[in-house]
Amino acid sequence: MTPLRQRMVDELLRRNYSQATIESYILAVKDFAAYFGKSPDLLGAEEVRRYQLHLVNEKRLAPNTVKVRMSALRFFYWRTLKRRDLHFDDLPLTKTPVKLPVVLSPEEVTRLIEGASSLKHRTMLMVLYATGLRRAELARLKVSDIDSKCMVIHIRQGKGRRDRDLPMTPTLLEALREYWRSARPAVYLFPSPRKVDGQERPISSKTVWHTCHEAAVRAGLTKAIHPHTLRHYAGSRTMPGEVRPKPQTPGC
Description:
252 residues, mainly alpha, DNA polymerase, domain 1, hpI Integrase, Chain A, 2 domains, 9 helices, 4% strand
């Protein structure tokens, strides 16, 4: 890692940015520098403007993606380099079109879960739907986060670095137990098949995305389905046909 990149990482860590945001911002600045073939500290406002046009007109990235890239560059120049000669007010962002979310019917949820190619993938989809987890949160789940006594799943350092508990239904608990008896994960609930220095590692958030996409294709579903789709639901967080669990007593 170059000293300049390390400096930016340090500034992001000092401000308690999440690991996902750090990776996203570093990648954005790296891509910006690669586009011009120069170190980013040698570039300025004109290059930032041209880069934005490149993202919008040539790469045709989504408005929110362009916004993240511009936020990364703003952080790099203002927070990392402490430069005040650059102004980002004249870089208007394309308005994000407001669209209704894709919502699955109970029958489509069942087809999606049954379309999973393995027990591991099937369990991942069940957890996504029953809890509304983000894909990065699912990837980082540990075996110890499953609390069968209190019937909750502990989410450690989720979005905004906040901990929270999510209720778990009997059907989901039984599915998790069946999966654990088969796979016997030691640390992470859904470990990557690749180990680093002999240590178990979690799957990537991209793996979660591909798992959902492949299940949708196998199920013959034509809607645009991805992990975030399962966060939109019409009703309670239960499996189709299951009764919503009763709230747990305080202090469990």
